[in-house]
Every structure is written in C-alpha cells, then in structure tokens.
Amino acid sequence: MARCLGEVDAVLFDLDGVITPTSLVHMRAWSELFTPFLAERRVEPPYTDRDYFAHIDGKPRYEGVRALLVSRGLSLPYGDPSDPPDAATVCGLGNRKNSLFNEVLRTEGVTAYPGSVRLIDALVAAGRRIAVVSSSRNARPVLEAAGLADRFALVVDGVTAAERGLPGKPDPATFLYAAEELGVPAERAAVLEDAESGVTAGRKGGFVLVVGVDRGAGAEALTEAGAHQVVDDLDALLLCNDESDEQRS
Ligand SMILES: O=P(O)(O)OC[C@H]1O[C@@H](O)[C@H](O)[C@@H](O)[C@@H]1O
Hints:
Layout: E1 10-13, H1 22-40, H2 49-56, H3 61-71, H4 90-108, H5 114-125, E2 129-133, H6 139-145, E3 155-156, H7 158-164, H8 173-182, E4 189-193, H9 196-204, E5 209-213, H10 219-225, E6 229-231, H11 235-248
Parallel strand pairs: 1-2, 1-4, 2-3, 4-5, 5-6
Helix pairs in contact: 1-4, 2-3, 3-4, 5-11
C-alpha cells in the first residue's frame, strides 16, 4: 500500500474542508436550516453540528437533507431541484440551505488553506495529475472565489454527477470517473478527504491511498471509515511528497 503521495501518479482532492475551509460554511448553513426546522416541529433531539458529521458531511445536497430527516424518523416528498426554497420538500429544504451558503460565500469570500495550496503546487511541479472530486454543485464558484480554478483541469462536482447519473459519495463512482478521466487506475491514485462518506468512497473505489484530513470529523471516525492515515493539514503530506521525490532520484 502506498504511504506517500510521492508513490502515486494522481491525487484526487475533495474540496470543502480539504482545499478550502468551506465545510465550515456548509456546516453553518445546514445548522441555520435544520435548527429552526426541527425546533418548530418540536422534533427531538435538537439539531447539533454532530448531526452534520454523522449524516450530512460530504454527501450531495439532497442526500444530506434526506439523511438528516431519516435520522429523526421524518420524511418529505423529494420534490424537484427547481423547487423554491420555501417548498416543504427535500429539494426545497436543500435549496433553502443553498441560499444560506451562497449568502455567506458572497459576503465573506473564501481563502484556501495555505498548506493545501502548497501541496497542490508541489504535486503539479512534480508532474502528478490532480483533480477535484466534490459532491457540491458549488465547487466551481468556490474554486473561483479561492483563486484556484486554473490549478485544476479536471473538476468532478455535483453538476457533473447529476449530468452523468453518477451516484454521490459514499459511492465511489465520482472518484472512479475522475481517475478514468486522468487515465490513472485507482491502484495508482490517492484520495484526500475530510468526510467519513468521502473516505468510505475512496476505500470502496480501491484507491491505493486514502488520506483522512481531520477538520472536525475526528481522527477516530475517519480511521474507522477506512482512512489509511489521518493528518491535520496537507502540509504533513507535502513533506512526505518531498521525501519520496528525493528517494526516487
Ligand atoms: O454545495 P452543495 O451542492 O449544496 O453541496 C453540499 C455538500 O457539498 C460537499 O462538498 C460538502 O462536503 C457537504 O458537507 C455539503 O453539504
């Protein structure tokens, strides 16, 4: 099993929480949606950020809504992605959360994690292939806002998945699609993920190295989900990459 990024030909990056701190923005928007939603209906237990990590993190928008509702024994009609934000449907709730997310993105902007940018640049300089694989339909605007859009020739996001009928994480389909587009088999590619659902997807896809990035999910949960190793920041992998490059030459 590869232990260092220097030993793989391609690296597939999750976006929110791995490259940019936008998992925190998602987390906040989900809380602004579900805290009043459950309280108004007197549904117990009340929503907390623990629900985000357990049920929502890393999944496509409407899957996140559905998983949270199921956790409270609730269900709503699925509706349609064109539903307005006040519709009492899975899509309506998801769209309400999306308005909250975009409001924060617009007012606060995005700054990528410096360690992630250093790793991206080091990998490109070392000739590795890289891609973003995100469940989010907002991946491109987030990359633009962070000034990183030009770093990635391949972005597989929630829009790509919907267009191609690919199931979202924890299914490995989006990661496998990205690897195929890069022309690298899973046995030669690494996955970097901060969500349990994403780690599970990486392992199910047979990727040789699945790194959990602990931004709040917890090292134990990421390890239990199957991460080969867990780091706090991508800087830790930068060293690993440099060392491997030295060993190669
Ligand atoms: O931006 P969208 O399309 O609503 O996607 C939402 C999801 O996008 C994922 O990237 C995040 O990890 C999830 O936590 C989030 O809920």
